[in-house]
Backbone:
């Protein structure tokens, strides 16, 4: 890959070998979009945290080139020290100063702020993270979710050019995760800077990330737009039980008497439970492969509302469970995955090019 330092991307060409006994080598060559959220995904020990540490300048032995929108932070000849890199960092644990109130923690960050950069104002972030009522509390008096919201606000108040988030929800229980995710969604949609988000959770990645980088043993094995990668067969996550696709569509009809909105994409429509959306709004829908079944005929005597006429594009056996296959379907050019038993695939004579009915049992509205 050629490194074009003038382009509007975060360029990372990094080689880093851990000193000491570890044989781990991180070796990546990436051009990450300079807007939106990029998820770093991969098994434990694949090098996600090491990559974030290299970007932030904490790994002194890292070699290579790092630049954001043409501004070089590291070259083969020089390296900007960590404290001079305009980066906000959110860790798994909030790491707030315990002897300062939430507000004093934020004020401390504001003293470090880059005066030439304006990512977000104090009032905006207080409102976005909904932390006004807890500003006078000390960290020990806050819930885990509140602490993490203060930590996110603090990272943004230094007015960084890049935000790194290393499993920011990992230390929270499921209920707190669900509580904080909407704040993160809002933040990710409104932030004017690139965000790199490390997670083990496909659910978080699907909700938050526009772009995905999958690491394995220090190398990039998959990379691309989230929506495109999710619709592929043979990726590391397509065999997951919660493997899903994301479809963007427009609300074209609402039936309030039935509590439904109809979402159109290409020549297809999908019904979803009506929420706050209005006709004309664009929605992102998540369809899990386990919620899609296949039928050779269109049963309009079925309780399943969403039945799409699709074409079989491809199919693979789940390498971890040979009794299951994952079938890639095309609704127009939009991919949908179905996870069905190998026996069903055999009985239906599933093969490429076959026109078939995809029955979708459940659809989640993402945003
Ligand atoms: N301080 C260290 N000294 C030596 N080796 C280390 C050190 N920290 C991590 N490693 C090794 O570097 C490799 C990458 O670790 P890293 O923490 O970057 O992975 P990760 O993908 O973030 O994992 P996890 O998802 O578990 O956080 C691993 O093999 C790990 O054992």
Residues:
């Amino acid at each position: 890959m050629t490194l074009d330092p003038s382009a509007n991307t975060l360029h990372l060409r990094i080689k880093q070998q851990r000193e000491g006994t570890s044989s781990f080598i991180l070796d990546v060559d990436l051009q990450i979009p300079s807007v939106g959220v990029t998820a770093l995904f991969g098994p434990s020990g694949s090098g996600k945290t090491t990559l974030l540490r290299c970007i932030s300048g904490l790994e002194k032995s890292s070699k290579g080139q790092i630049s954001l929108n043409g501004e070089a932070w590291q070259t083969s000849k020089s390296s900007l020290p960590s404290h001079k890199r305009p980066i906000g960092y959110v860790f798994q644990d909030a790491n707030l100063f315990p002897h300062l109130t939430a507000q004093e923690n934020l004020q401390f960050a504001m003293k470090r702020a880059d005066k030439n950069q304006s990512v977000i104002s104090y009032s905006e972030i207080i409102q976005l993270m909904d932390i006004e009522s807890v500003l006078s509390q000390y960290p020990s008096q806050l819930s885990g979710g509140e602490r993490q919201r203060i930590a996110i606000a603090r990272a943004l108040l230094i007015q960084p050019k890049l935000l790194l988030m290393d499993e920011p929800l990992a230390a929270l229980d499921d209920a707190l995760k669900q509580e904080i995710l909407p704040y993160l969604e809002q933040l990710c949609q409104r932030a004017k800077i690139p965000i790199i988000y490390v997670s083990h959770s496909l659910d978080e990645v699907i909700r938050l990330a526009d772009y995905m980088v999958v690491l394995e043993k220090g190398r990039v094995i998959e990379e691309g737009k989230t929506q495109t990668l999710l619709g592929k067969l043979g990726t590391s996550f397509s065999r997951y039980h919660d493997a899903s696709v994301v479809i963007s569509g427009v609300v074209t009809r609402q039936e309030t008497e039935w509590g439904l909105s109809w979402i159109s994409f290409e020549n297809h429509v999908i019904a979803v439970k009506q929420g706050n959306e209005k006709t004309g709004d664009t929605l992102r829908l998540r369809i899990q492969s386990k919620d899609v079944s296949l039928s050779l005929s269109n049963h309009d005597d079925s309780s399943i509302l969403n039945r799409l006429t699709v074409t079989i594009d491809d199919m693979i056996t789940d390498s971890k469970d040979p009794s299951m296959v994952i079938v890639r379907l095309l609704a127009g050019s939009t991919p949908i995955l179905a996870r069905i038993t190998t026996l069903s695939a055999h009985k239906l004579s599933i093969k490429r090019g076959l026109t078939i009915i995809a029955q979708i049992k459940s659809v989640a509205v993402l945003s």
Q: What stands out?
A: The pocket of adenosine-5'-triphosphate is lined by residues 18, 20, 22, 24, 42, 44-50 (CB under 6 Å).
